[in-house]
Amino acid sequence: METLKMSSRMSLVQNQILPLNFKPYPLIHNSRILGVYSTKGRTFSFTLTCKLNTVKGNKPSKEKSRISVPGSDGVAPPVVESEEGSVGNGGRKVEEAKNGVVGFGLLKKLPRKVLGILSNLPLAIAEMFAVAALMALGTFIDQGEAPDYYFQKFPEDHPPLGFFSWRWVLTLGFDHMFSSPVFLGTLALLGASLMACTYTTQIPLVKVARRWSFLQSAETIRKQEYADTLPRASVKDLGVILMGDGYEVFSKGPALYAFKGLAGRFAPIGVHISLLLIMSGGTLSAVGSFRGAVTVPQGLNFVAGDVLAPSGFLSTPSDAFSTEIHVNRFSMDYYDSGEVSQFHTDLSLFDLNGKEVMRKTISVNDPLRYGGITIYQTDWSISALQVLKDDEGPFNLAMAPLQLNGGDKKLFGTFLPVADDNSPNVKGISMLARDLQSVILYDKEGKFAGVRRPNSNLPIEIDGIKIVIADAIGSSGLDLKTDPGVPVVYAGFGALMLTTCISYLSHTQLWALQDGTSVVVGGKTNRAKGEFPDTMNCLLDQVPELVESSSPEEPNILSGL
């Protein structure tokens, strides 16, 4: 039996400090105390909520409570119940007590307000559009160029769009968009919104979905999205049918609860985590990778660390940066029309001791990976021609790329001087090559002289000079990259595809109650709501109907029709 206990000091407060009259309601745990306050001819009532002790040995509450009297002309001294159960004013001011409580409340509410703002759907959509716009702008603006390039591309006298000059590009870091503070900040804000939405919306939905409870009222079941009544049926038979359809079934007396597709409730959380992985991997790639490009003639080598340059403040070199890379051979494949179809580079990698640690022939879309460094085949050129002149040499003539009017064709040229003491201008034999298959030669007057294939050893005489094209030396265009974010991005995309498929699973909940010889069934689902009634009707049609035996001597039996 519960009894109401009041401290003796509370009575002292009632008799000496404030003219309070209490009218308690005993035998009610956590009840309210009604009182009357009278002063200066004014009388009004108030309520005080309190927590009562019981005779079962419950310990007194250690919560501090405060009694405040509204409507008075002055502010009454606070009456605070201490942890030991005594009451006193302690010399405190009401303002101090209020400030303490209010300050704690603000600290508790501040994170919720921030989470509420971040989890706002219109804000998240705006952030996604902002990221997409910045990415599109990053494709429009050439990345990683020298400042002079932007001075010419975005001049101040005639800026694009009337205002977008080079100052915008360089000040906001749009020349390296995907590592600029603007882009990374927007990406971080979008990630914060995803986490806030997951914490405030998706996780609570999963917690609610995991709880299972029985509905003991037929009226409550009939208020579900789908409801039906099975006459002459058993709730146990319904449970068997539901289990056969993949439902998790729980029963308690005449009540039944079943669900399936709970993974569909977890899928949105997985989608958010996948997106966070993709954004984290992209950010790590932007601020923690190394990149570089080099064109190396056949037979030469270079050190990986001399080519790779950091792209962000998290870029950290590895031991593989000291690897020496040697171009053993460069070759090209051609279509029947003579166009270049593929080019290959035979590479050897050596450690600091000069030991070959790896060798591979790479091509376009078939890179080499070693120690976190990836080497891609991206381009080619012709570095030199080896020429025999009157059986002397060979001489290496450097080839220079020539600019053509439009198109993506390549053309390289070189010049073999011919001594002429009587001419003030140096003249010679010109040689042009589109690829490594053939070389076109012109005499010192610029007239066509002939075509020779490298390594054919077939001489040609031009202006009295015998020329042999011994070889054409190609150069391999290589891109080197270290990208620690690639595995994270791949994992994020893989998880995104998986969780997106899982999210299409419907989370269905069913309740049933045995009401005499009838079973009241109700349920709801979060997807495929249009098909849900038809699906339920098919399931309920399988529930056997209870019938009585026609023989009066035999007891009632359950049979399925």
Can you tell me about this structure?
Residues 57-92 are annotated as: Disordered. The chain crosses the membrane at residues 117-141, 182-201. This protein has 561 residues and is of the alpha+beta class. Helix content is 30%, strand content 31%. It contains 12 helices and 27 strands. It has helices at residues 8-17, 94-118, 121-140, 147-153, 166-171, 181-210, 218-222, 235-244, 263-288, 304-307, 486-502, 532-540, and strands spanning 20-23, 32-39, 42-49, 66-67, 79-81, 87-88, 226-230, 248-252, 255-260, 290-297, 301-303, 309-310, 324-334, 340-350, 356-363, 368-370, 373-389, 392-398, 400-401, 412-418, 427-433, 439-442, 448-452, 460-462, 465-482, 508-515, 518-525. Strands 10, 12, 16, 17, 18, 24 and 25 form a 7-stranded antiparallel sheet that branches. Strands 7-27-26-9-8 form a 5-stranded antiparallel sheet. A hairpin with an 8-residue loop joins β20 and β21 (427-433). α3 (121-140) runs antiparallel to α6 (181-210). It starts with 7 loop residues before the first helix and ends in a 21-residue tail after the last helix.
